[in-house]
Amino acid sequence: ISLHNFSFLGFTLIKSGQDDSTGQTVLILLGILGAVYGWLLTTKSQYINTRKNHSIQTLMSSRLSSCYIEKFDLLNQISSKHAHAPLTYEQYEALDENEKLAIMYALNYYEYVAVGIRFGDLDENLIKNTLRSNILSTYHFLENIIIERSKINNSCLEHLKALCQRWEHEKKGIYIKIC
User: Fold this and answer.
1) Contacts of 105 (CB under 8 A, 6+ apart)
2) What is the pLDDT of residues 17-34, one digit of tens each?
3) Can you tell me the distance from the alpha carbon of 71 to that of 86, in angstroms, rounded to the nearest whole number?
4) Hey, which residues does 18 pair with through a beta bridge?
């Protein structure tokens, strides 16, 4: 390819020996533009990989945590004891302190996950494919507690509520954006 008669955006390359340097300027600008474009692509790729890696680390660290296992085992016992029917606030108040702590631990963990999804720190598809049924079933089991806590503080577990509502609508085939 010969660049002797090349023209771009009104700039033309000239033969060596002439004193106009606009052609070289265009080549330099094109080189810079190519480098910036390559940098942007690399940055986007790194962002996607970092987000997925962070999501997997979050999932694995929770699953390997003895505290997580203990609290969620206790939550499963509470759920079984109440025949998986939604827990009323009165039933919650009647629980012992360790059971209440297990419930709040689970809700806070899922709120953390919901915040990570909402602000793009966690990969939603990965989390949805691994935790969706757990999050939704826990949400429905503890929905009365969430409602009562929200009466005291409106922003309490707001991200978890928004995430569960959105996933419920998606499950029914209704796609809405809840901000």
Assistant:
1) 67, 68, 71
2) 555 566 677 778 888 999
3) 18
4) 16
CA 174 to mean position of chain CA atoms: 20
pLDDT (tens digit, 9 = 90+) per residue, 88-144?
999 999 999 999 999 999 999 999 999 999 999 999 999 999 999 999 999 999 999
Task: Give dist(CA 38, CA 79) in Å, integer.
Answer: 52
The DSSP secondary-structure symbol of 20 reads -
What burial letters (b/e) apply to 67-90, b meaning 16+ CB within 10 Å? Answer: eeeebbebbeebbeeeeeeebeee
3-state secondary structure at position 82: coil
Q: Are 111 and 160 in contact (CB under 8 A)?
A: yes
Q: How far apart are CA 117 and CA 51, in angstroms?
A: 10
